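As proposed in the renewal application, we extended the modelling pipeline to accept nucleic acid strands and small-molecule ligands alongside protein chains. Below is a test complex run through the extended pipeline.
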Amino acid sequence: MGPWWLLHVDLDQFVAAVEVLRRPELRGRPVVVGGDGDPTRARQVVATASYEARAFGVRSGMPLRAAFRRCPEAVFLPSDPPVYEAASARVMATLRSFPVRVEVWGWDEAFVGAEVADPWALAADLRRAVLDKTGLSCAIGIGDNKTTAKIAARFGKPGGIYELTAGNWMAVMGERPAGELWGIGPKTAAKLTELGLHTVADLATADADALRARFGPRQGAWLLVLARGLGDTEIVTEPWIARSRSRETTYPRDLTDREEIAAGVAVLARELGAEIVGAGRRVTHVAVKVRFASFYTPTRVMKLRDGPTTDVAVIERAALIVLEKFRLDRPVRLLGVRVDLAMDD
DNA sequence: TCTGGGGTCCTAGGACCC
DNA sequence: TCTGGGGTCCTAGGACCC
Ligand SMILES: Nc1ccn([C@H]2C[C@H](O)[C@@H](COP(=O)(O)OP(=O)(O)OP(=O)(O)O)O2)c(=O)n1
Ligand SMILES: [Mg+2]
Ligand SMILES: [Mg+2]
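Having received these inputs, the pipeline returned the following structure for the whole assembly:
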């Protein structure tokens, strides 16, 4: 036994690695996964790129055509979520086969809590087991809370182990940009810069009142905690219950016809409805999202008046009623439907 | 090179009630 | 009467992450 440690496991180049598993001849080549895999078509982006492709500057979220320009010799593959889901489940099962607490956090990562004397030995064993059982490589961060463990895994990439705790937090992170912290994105980073706060150390020693004035009481306090390398230590092992489910489509060409738009929403609503019924969940709200060609993207939502439903027809009808709230006099590039789910069943 | 799809959580303002 | 707070529900949007 020993103290409690918090580890973060994050798979390397996850969806690209899963593709390489089923096509071993791709190993060592630049691989780009995204959209339908055709890098000449617009309105598609990179889900992930193998490290070989990243060497050419290809990144998640980049338009597929931009990736093609940067790396025409890459192998472009369509995204195949069910296969990634299955691979993810094998990884999580492997982690859970150890005498540890496991909190799944998305497709390709998990927090692991364990009371051990030697967290490095545990991390090495976990890494080895995941590789042996699934063929997938991962990095593991060793920390004293979720903040440190998560960032440690980043330093471990690819395929390594790194330890970040209160002992080395400031030495390692102090001079790095505050935007590298998990939860600080571009907008928050820009606001911090306006306050003259550039590094993690700047933020960690910032005036609490100034932060609260700029960010509000909650976020202001949280930013300080984050920059000091503090964070949650609780591992929730219970399976995650989804709060919502959504389906959206960017069309290859804009829709302009009202009937066509309504038909698109109906299709999405029915697909979603079928999945919900399959999952045995009840729907409380139905939301519709419309992205116009300008990229203006309003959302409208309706709480179901007659209470939670499992009726696909009710969901579809609600989506079409919500669609009425939009002025559809401009070209539409994306339609989406989201359902919020009852949390008490 | 114009900008995917699937999620979560937080905030703010108006309605409505006391 | 010309003036209050507070609480809760509801919707819209922002921000972030994988
Ligand atoms: N904008 C993004 C980011 C990620 N993903 C998907 C594809 C990734 O493979 C997976 C995991 O995300 P990570 O951030 O963990 O990235 P990778 O696992 O691909 O690479 P890394 O080795 O850096 O973790 O999530 C996505 O579809 N779109
Ligand atoms: Mg990963
Ligand atoms: Mg990840």
